[in-house]
Each structure stands twice: as C-alpha cells, then as structure tokens.
Amino acid sequence: MNDITMKVNADALIMSALSEDITSEDITTASVMKTYQKGEVELICKQDGVIAGLEVFKRVFELLDSKTEVEFFCKDGDPVKNGEKLAVVTGDIRVLLSGERTALNYLQRMSGIATYTKNIADMLKGTNTKLLDTRKTTPNMRVFEKYAVKVGGGYNHRYNLSDGILLKDNHIGAAGSVAKAVQMAKEYAPFVRKIEVEVENLDMLKEALTAGADIIMLDNMSVEDMKEAVSLCKGKAETECSGNVTKENIKRLVDIGVDYISSGALTHSSPILDLSLKNLHAV
Prior knowledge:
Radius of gyration: 23 Å
Strand order of the largest sheet: 6-11-10-9-8-7
CATH topology of the largest domain: TIM Barrel
Structural class: alpha/beta
CATH architecture of the largest domain: Alpha-Beta Barrel
Order of helices and strands: HHEEHEEEHEHEHHEHEHEEHE
Low-confidence stretches: none
Distance between the termini: 30 Å
Number of strands: 12
Helix content: 40-55%
Mean pLDDT: 96
C-alpha cells in the first residue's frame, strides 16, 4: 500500500481498531511505564509463510506517535521463515506496548491470507486461469484483505456493489428470468460495465449467452457440465467457476479451462500467520 492509499482508505479504519482496543487508556502500560522511555522491540516470524501488511503494521504505531520508526528486513510478498527477524520497531515504549496487538492483528491476518492465496495460486501455474477473491470479507477489513490476496498472487474480483454487475440467483428471481435480468441490467447500467450472470445449469447458461452476458459464473456445477459450458462460451463470453473452492478441492477445476476461479475461502477461511513482537527493551 502506498501513502495515498493508506491515508484515503486505511487510516480511519486503523484508528477505529485502535479506539476499540483503547477506549479510555491502556491501564496496564500506564501502570508500568508512567513517563516517556525510548525502546525497541523485534518482529519475529513464528511460522513459514508469505508476509503481507507491513505498511499497515507500521502505520498503527505512526498513528499513535509519528516519531515511531520501523526498520524492515523484508517486503510484502516475501517468503518468511520460522524464527526470522522481520523488523525492529523503535519509539516510546508506551506506544510500542499499546499498539502491539492491533498491529499484529492486521499483519497476522493479512499474511495468513497472502500465504493461503499463494498456496492455491501455485496450483494454477501453467494454466491461463486466474484466481479471484470475493466479497466474503470481514466487515471493515476488505481493503486490507483484498490487498493481501494480490500480494499472495491472486486477483481482485469486484471491490463492492458499486464496482460491477453480478446477477446472482436472487437477482434473477427478482427480475423473473435470466433474460429479463440481463436486459434490465443493460438498460440501467453504464455501457462501460460488463454484465456477469451466475448460472446453475446449461439451460441457464444458454439463456444468458443469448441475452448477451459478458461473463458467465458457473456456480456449483459438475466438472462435466463446466467443461461443456466452457466450450459453449468460447468466443462469446468469459467464464468463471465458483462454489466452495478451497485448497483441498481446487485441483479438480484446474483442467476445465475457465478464465477465472473465485474462492471466498481466500478471505473467510485462511488461518493467520503466527507472528510476535519480542525482546522489548529500553535504548
């Protein structure tokens, strides 16, 4: 994340997280550290993975005290190893103590997503299929989680409801049919927007193609039907498959030939990467 992205999209969210953790004061830190004392603490990796969110980690401490300094020994996207020292944070010991948990929460969560995404993206190497995230993100964490997906080698699907047209089963039900839903979207939406339609069978797919859909999402279809769907869509629409895609079952989808595979698991089911701040001492 660059400075502009951080200020525009992240600072308010980080401050909200800090406010959640410090409603009036950090009573523990205030008890043991009543006045300013410069100190430093080390960021230690406790598990192999991919690091993501270093600038967010740094920003937590900077928002508490702009004089805080962070020296990194890695960058976002780097593989990291158990026992590796990733950074040294220097500043007011009260700030280091009060910001520790919020900073680690962001970094552990984002690094976990990047690690999980990298594991799945590696399974698609050698194909033309791109791995996408979804909107199944933690409330108020989307900007961080979708960034972590990109660091891990995935791609972002639409960011939010204003970002693209995706006609799912309930939209189709509200419109009355696939054809009517696509027609209404074409009439309402700006011409620069692509129209994606979720289908559950080949009949729905044919209706969507006839109506002029740009992207077809194949939702929870059999491998055989998805292969036929890709053939039907060739030269007419891009294809995306979805439906409970995880690291454990994605291999069955690798040879289907879809343009995209989307997985909510990237953001809702990835475990954190274990990281810790250790060896705090005065300097």
